[in-house]
C-alpha cells in the first residue's frame, strides 16, 4: 500500500512539473528561512551556557535610586565586594572580581603589540570553565605578578617554546610571569579576552577599588549546590548599606544568573525589561509565520488543481476507496514534497550560511553530530508536510463521486471563504513585515543621522598612554602645527561614552537629603573646540585663567538639576573642591541613544591620567592628519604601536545589533512576500480555471481584455485591502512597543503604513495580472468547447 502511494505521488509530481516545481520551491524557501532562523536562535540561546557549573554561576547586580531619576541597574560593583561576600555568606562557594576589557601593550624581546585582556581575581578560573592547556586553574591567578595568556598569544610571543614560566612586560612598566595558557575561548562566550592578569596588580594601580563608594568591576559568585539563589539574593540586598553604615544608602544588590545576562540585559526602573530575548522571540515568530505562509501557498496550489484531481477521487471512491485511504494518499504526497523541499532547503542553507554568518557576525554550522539537529530537521519536515497537506487531504477526500463524475465541481461558500481567508492571512503578515521593515529602517537611519550635539565627523581619537601622559602638553603643541590638524585635546572618556558618574556634587541651596547622580569627565584645554560642542553661555576652559583647574563647565541637564537661574559664575563643589561654573554647554549625547541625556560636569585634569587624545582634522585632509598623528606619536611614544579610531565609524558599531536586525527584517519580509505571491498565483490560476466558461461567454458578448482582467483582479485586490485592515493595527502596536526602548525615537506616521499597503497592492496586482491576462486572451471558442 505504501509503495503504491509513493508511486502515485511520484507520477503526479512528474506529470505536473510546473505545479510540483512551484510547490517544492515555495516549501523549500520557507523551510530554508526557518532553518536559518532556528540555527541563529539555537546559537543565541547557547550563549554562556557551556560552563560546567552554569546553573550555579551568578553575577552581582546593583539597583541605584537617585533623586528625580528612575532606578538604574548596573553590573558595576565595588572592587572589594566579591571577597567580602564569600567571607560573610556560607552559601557562596567562590567569588571573583573581573574588570572591563582593556588594551595593554605586551612585550617579549622585539615582539610587542596591543592586546585585549582583563584583570581577574583568584577564583575566576575556578568559577568559569575556561580550560587551561598549561598551568593549574586553582592557582594560576594567585601570584601578584601572574598573567594567563591564550594559546594564540603563546604562539605569537613564544613561537616554538613552552610559554609557561616565561616573562611578559606589560605597558613597559611591569614584568609578569606566565602562569597558564588557555585554550581558545568558545564562540558562544560573551566574556572576551586574550589574557588575564592578577587582581592584585589592578588594586595596586587603582587604590579606589578598596572603597565601598566606588564602582567599576564586576562581581561573580558560584553558589553551593544546596543554596537557594533567590534567598541569597534577598539576603545580600542591603549588604552595601550594612557595610557603609548608611541606611539611607540608595544601593541594593541582587543576583542574576550569568548565562541569562546576554539575553536579559535590559532593566527599567529596577525591573527586568527584556533585551536580546525580544529579538529571539520575534524571529521565532517570523520563522513560524514564514513556514505557515509556505504551507498556505501549498494549500492554495493544491486547491487550484482540485478540478483535475476530482475525477481521480471520484473513480477511486466508486471502486471502493475509503476516505481515510484517500487522506493518507494526499498527506503522503505532501510529505514526499516536504522531504524533497527539505533536500533543496538544506542545499540552500549550506550555500547561504557563509553569507548569513557574515551578516549576523556568527559562526553557525550544521551540527551533523548533534542528534537534536536531526530531530529539528525531521520535525520541521513532518510539521510542514502535515500542515500543508491537511487541507487538501480533507477537501479532496470529501468530494462526492456522483457530483465530480458528472464533470461539474462546485465549491461551497465555506470553502471559498477559507481559501480567501488564507490569502488575507498571508498578506496580513506581509503588510506587517513591510511596515515593520520601513519603521525599523527609519529608526536606524534616524539614529545614524541624528545631531548628537557634537560633530562626530573628522574626529579621531587614540589612547593617551606611555610617554604621552608625561609629555602631553608638548605633544599637543607640536601636533597643532602639523598639516591636517585643526584642534587637539584630551579626555578621560572617549567621545561616545562617559562611563563615570558621582553623587559628590554640592551647591548653595542644595537639599542635603537628595542624592543626585552626575556624569563627569576630566578634560584638557580645547575640548569643546575639538568636539565642536556649542556653548550656551559662559566660556571654555582657558590657560589665561589659572583658577580653571578648579572651575567647571556643565550641560543644560545639569543646570536644570542644580536649579541656578543664572548658573555662570555660581559656586559648585565637586569631590570637595570648591570652584565656580564658567560655562554651560548645550546638551549633547554622552552615551547610548537608548537613554536620555543625563547631567554632566566637565572639569580640568590637574595631573597625568589614562584617557584619549582627541584630534579634530581639517575637512578633506584626513590622510594628511593621520600621517601627522603617526609621525608625532612615534616621536613621543616609540615603544607603543600607533592606534586610532574614527568617531563616526565607532558610532556605527554601537548600534550593530539594530543594523543586523534591520537587514534580517528586510530579507525575511521580501521572502515572505515572494512566497505569498506564489500562493496568490495559485489562487488566481484556480479562479481563472473555475471561470473559464464565464470568461468565454463575456468575450463573445463583447467584453474587452481590460474588462476581463479587472473582473478577475478586483476580488484579489479587495482581499489585500482587507489584509491591511487586519495588519495595520497589529503592526502599529508591535512597532510602537519596539520603539519605546529608545529614549530618542521617530514618530510613527501614517505614510509608513500607506507605503506598506500600496506596495502590497502593487505586488499583488503584478502577480495576478499574469494569470488574468492569460485567461482574458484565451480563445472563447476553445474555452466554451472545454465545458
TrEMBL record:
Residues 285-398, 668-780 form the ABC3 transporter permease C-terminal domain. It is a multi-pass membrane protein. Residues 20-238, 430-627 form the MacB-like periplasmic core domain. The keyword Repeat does not apply. It is found in: Cell membrane. This is Putative permease. Pfam families: FtsX, MacB_PCD. The keyword Lyase does not apply. It comes from the Bacteria. GO terms for cellular component: plasma membrane. InterPro entries: ABC3_permease_C, MacB_PCD, Macrolide_Exporter_MacB. Its main location: membrane. The chain crosses the membrane at residues 21-41, 279-301, 330-353, 373-396, 417-441, 667-688, 716-735, 750-770. GO terms for molecular function: transmembrane transporter activity. Keywords: Cell membrane, Membrane, Transmembrane, Transmembrane helix.
Amino acid at each position: 500500500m505504501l509503495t503504491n502511494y509513493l508511486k502515485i505521488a511520484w507520477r503526479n509530481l512528474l506529470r505536473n512539473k510546473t505545479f510540483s516545481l512551484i510547490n517544492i520551491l515555495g516549501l523549500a524557501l520557507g523551510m530554508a528561512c526557518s532553518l536559518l532562523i532556528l540555527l541563529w536562535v539555537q546559537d543565541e540561546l547557547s550563549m554562556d551556557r557551556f560552563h560546567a557549573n552554569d546553573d550555579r554561576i551568578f553575577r552581582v547586580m546593583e539597583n541605584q535610586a537617585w533623586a528625580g531619576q528612575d532606578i538604574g541597574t548596573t553590573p558595576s560593583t565595588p572592587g572589594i565586594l566579591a571577597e567580602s561576600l564569600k567571607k560573610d555568606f556560607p552559601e557562596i562557594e567562590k567569588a571573583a572580581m573581573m574588570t572591563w576589557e582593556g588594551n595593554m601593550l605586551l612585550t617579549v624581546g622585539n615582539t610587542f603589540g596591543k592586546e585585549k585582556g582583563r584583570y581577574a581575581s583568584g577564583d575566576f578560573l575556578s568559577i568559569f570553565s575556561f580550560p587551561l592547556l598549561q598551568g593549574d586553574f586553582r592557582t594560576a591567578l594567585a601570584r601578584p605578578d601572574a598573567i594567563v595568556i591564550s594559546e594564540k598569544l603563546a604562539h605569537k610571543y613564544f613561537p616554538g617554546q613552552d610559554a609557561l614560566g616565561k616573562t611578559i612586560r606589560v605597558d613597559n612598566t611591569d614584568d609578569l610571569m606566565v602562569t597558564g595558557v588557555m585554550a581558545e575561548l568558545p564562540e558562544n562566550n560573551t566574556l572576551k579576552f586574550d589574557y588575564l592578569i592578577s587582581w592584585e596588580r589592578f588594586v595596586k594601580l587603582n587604590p579606589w577599588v578598596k572603597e565601598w563608594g566606588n564602582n567599576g568591576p564586576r562581581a561573580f559568585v558560584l553558589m553551593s549546590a544546596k543554596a537557594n539563589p533567590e534567598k541569597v539574593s534577598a539576603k545580600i540586598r542591603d549588604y552595601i548599606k550594612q557595610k557603609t553604615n548608611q541606611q539611607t544608602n540608595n544601593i541594593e544588590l541582587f543576583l542574576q544568573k550569568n548565562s541569562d545576562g546576554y539575553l536579559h540585559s535590559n532593566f527599567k526602573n529596577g525591573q527586568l525589561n527584556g533585551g536580546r530575548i525580544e529579538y529571539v522571540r520575534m524571529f521565532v515568530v517570523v520563522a513560524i509565520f514564514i513556514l505557515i505562509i509556505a504551507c498556505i501557498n501549498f494549500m492554495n496550489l493544491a486547491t487550484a488543481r482540485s478540478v483535475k484531481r476530482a475525477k481521480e477521487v471520484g473513480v477511486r471512491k466508486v471502486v471502493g476507496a475509503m476516505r481515510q485511504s484517500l487522506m493518507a494518499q494526499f498527506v503522503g504526497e505532501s510529505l514526499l514534497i516536504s522531504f524533497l523541499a527539505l533536500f533543496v532547503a538544506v542545499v540552500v542553507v549550506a550555500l547561504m550560511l557563509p553569507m548569513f554568518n557574515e551578516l549576523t557576525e556568527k559562526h553557525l554550522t550544521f551540527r551533523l553530530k548533534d542528534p537534536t539537529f536531526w530531530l529539528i530537521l525531521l520535525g520541521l519536515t513532518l510539521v510542514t508536510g502535515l500542515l500543508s497537506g491537511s487541507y487538501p487531504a480533507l477537501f479532496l477526500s470529501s468530494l462526492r463521486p456522483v457530483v465530480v463524475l458528472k464533470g461539474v465541481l462546485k465549491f461551497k461558500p465555506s470553502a471559498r471563504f477559507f481559501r480567501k481567508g488564507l490569502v488575507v492571512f498571508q498578506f496580513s503578515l506581509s503588510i506587517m513585515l513591510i511596515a515593520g521593515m520601513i519603521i525599523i529602517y527609519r529608526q536606524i537611519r534616524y539614529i545614524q543621522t541624528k545631531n548628537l550635539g557634537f560633530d562626530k565627523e573628522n574626529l579621531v581619537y587614540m589612547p593617551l598612554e606611555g610617554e604621552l601622559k608625561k609629555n602631553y602638553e608638548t605633544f599637543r603643541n607640536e601636533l597643532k602645527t602639523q598639516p591636517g590638524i585643526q584642534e587637539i585635546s584630551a579626555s578621560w572618556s572617549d567621545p561616545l561614552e562617559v562611563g563615570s558618574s558621582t553623587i559628590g556634587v554640592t551647591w548653595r541651596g542644595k537639599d542635603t537629603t537628595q542624592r543626585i547622580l552626575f556624569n563627569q569627565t576630566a578634560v584638557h584645554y580645547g575640548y569643546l573646540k575639538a568636539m565642536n560642542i556649542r556653548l550656551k553661555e559662559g566660556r571654555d576652559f582657558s590657560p589665561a585663567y589659572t583658577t580653571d583647574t578648579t572651575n567647571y563647565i556643565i550641560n543644560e541637564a545639569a543646570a536644570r538639576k542644580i536649579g541656578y537661574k543664572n548658573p555662570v559664575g555660581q559656586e559648585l563643589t565637586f569631590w570637595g573642591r570648591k570652584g565656580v561654573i564658567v560655562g554651560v554647554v548645550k546638551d549633547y549625547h554622552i552615551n547610548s541613544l537608548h537613554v536620555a541625556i543625563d547631567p554632566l560636569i566637565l572639569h580640568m585634569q590637574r595631573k597625568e591620567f589614562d584617557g584619549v587624545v582627541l584630534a579634530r582634522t581639517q575637512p578633506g585632509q584626513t590622510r594628511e592628519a593621520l600621517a601627522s598623528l603617526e609621525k608625532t606619536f612615534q616621536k613621543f611614544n616609540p615603544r607603543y604601536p600607533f592606534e586610532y579610531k574614527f568617531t563616526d565609524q565607532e558610532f556605527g558599531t554601537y548600534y550593530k545589533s539594530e543594523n543586523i536586525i534591520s537587514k534580517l527584517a528586510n530579507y525575511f519580509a521580501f521572502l515572505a512576500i515572494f512566497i505569498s505571491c506564489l500562493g496568490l498565483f495559485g489562487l488566481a490560476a484556480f479562479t481563472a480555471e473555475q471561470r473559464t466558461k464565464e470568461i468565454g461567454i463575456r468575450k463573445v458578448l463583447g467584453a474587452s481584455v481590460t474588462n476581463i482582467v479587472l473582473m478577475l483582479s478586483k476580488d484579489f485586490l479587495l482581499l489585500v485591502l482587507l489584509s491591511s485592515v487586519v495588519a495595520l493595527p497589529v503592526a502599529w502596536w508591535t512597532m510602537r512597543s519596539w520603539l519605546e526602548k529608545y529614549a530618542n525615537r521617530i514618530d510613527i506616521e501614517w505614510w509608513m503604513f500607506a507605503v506598506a499597503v500600496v506596495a502590497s497592492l502593487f505586488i499583488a496586482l503584478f502577480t495576478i495580472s499574469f494569470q488574468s491576462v492569460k485567461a482574458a486572451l484565451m480563445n472563447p471558442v476553445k474555452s466554451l468547447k472545454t465545458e
